[in-house]
Amino acid sequence: MHQTAPLSEAARLRDRRLWRLAFAGMVLAMLIFGSNFVVSRHAVLNGLTSHDLLALRFGIAGLLLLPGFVAGGLKSCNEIGWGRGVLLAVMSGFPMSYLLLTGVTYAPAAHGATIGPGLVTVISIIGSVALFGAIITRQLIVGIVAVLLGLTCLGIAGTTHTNPSILFGDLCFVGVGLIWGMYPLLVQLWRLDPLKATSVVAVLSMAYLPFYALFFFRGFDVAPWWVIVLHGINQGVLNVILGLWLWSVAARRMGPAVAGRFPPTIPIIGTLLAIPVLGEIPSGLQVAGIGLIIAGLFVASWRRSPRPAA
Fold it and tell me: Which residues have CB under 8 Å from 276's CB, separation 6+?
């Protein structure tokens, strides 16, 4: 009996320390995902194109994850299957990333940080009901309505803005949400390892590199070398590998009820960071739209944590 108490206390302290590490990892993942819209728009405003960022994103991530992909088996597409792998690559690889990086070329970063996550949340809720039998509650309905109203406000603001290209960028972000929203649902439905799925997406998306080399490569002098390295690390390492790894590990430790409260911070981070970095001051209607989307995300994703077992 004298040995049980110290062991129990040590286990409790260990769990608390791991939970704090998971919390810090989740915060860092949200900072990575939220700031990506701002960093990517900064890149296209300073000489790099969406094609350059795509090549950096999948060239670096694909090469880093290629050994694990090969070890998992070429015949089985890293134990996922080629049919599933190609579908995941469409939803989270080149097509989705092309729309995202094209969107930040024409529209403010704050729009990308709100429209994409907003639609992903709506699709995730609808998909959870259709695929997993989740129950639609009043809270979810209120959250979805708020997100859709916010998207409407941003759409109206885009059509009345002096720069008509903003609406085109917003439509690209809508495409991002529609495509990307099904990715986590399929990973959950097929019970795939998130990092295996990521390696499949990154490696298969390397098929874009020959087209980039033939039609879009402009040489390495389009920007200072440190700018290319910086955005290569942001696109290929932080967003594709580190962010997803931190998210998956932290979500497993914290549980879905707590982990689901973090994604609504992505538009907050993106909107606030765009003001000092890019000088993007949203209009009144844009503020209303962004606010409605953020509020809808919080309402839709907020769930009570399960009570500990007796």
Answer: none
